[in-house]
Amino acid sequence: MQTPLIRILGPIQISDGLRPEPLRGAKPCALLTALALRPGSVVSLEKLLDALWAGEPPRSAVANLRSYAHLLRRRLPVATPLISHQGGYELRVAPDAVDHLVFERLADRGRSAVTDDPPRAIELLDAALALWSSDHAAPGVERYGMLDGPLRTLDAERIRATEDLADAWLGVGEPHSALRTAGQVLAAEPLRIRSWLLVLNAHHHLGERGRVTDAFESARTVFRRELGTEPDACLGRLHQQLLAG
Length: 245
What we know:
3-stranded antiparallel β-sheet; 58% helix; transcription; DNA-binding; two-component regulatory system; Sig_transdc_resp-reg_C-effctor
């Protein structure tokens, strides 16, 4: 798979077609992120100003925005123009040149294959997750305005794709890999019920009856400590089903 020209699934980078190079400066990074989230669409000045400044932007904001756009034009490949429109800017780039769109496409295809073709799902989901070089999209970019929702969604989709991968590992009879993958999620997001379900199933596949119960009790401890509640009832039902089986 060819390296995308614009990368926001980690530190912001622009590739010259050969290798990615980091983009410096918080505001240029925020501007490129905002435009890359809507490639081929005109993003209004109002939305861009909200994405770059919290609250009331400074009087020089529009002039500063033009300067950041000029910097991006110097860094972007000729075939990836940044177009000025009346009232906004457009990053004219093919979908496969932006990493988050490639990730979304691969993750969707992998998710669809988990049940019917788990080996193919593993291949697709591995490729999707390999596009990430950080636990969060656009680290270091402040999530103001239009940036907040889409970046949070990307973070959530990374977690979901990781859980899909763990599910696919179970589908090919590799519970150790499923445990490792689901454990990566729980290390960062210990309240993920689906990951706990995957962990219990993985221990069951390994014939580790005692560890099924240990994992269930660990989940209960986490939920009691963090939320003061028991985990979702589906976890308890699975625990009983696996012990009964």
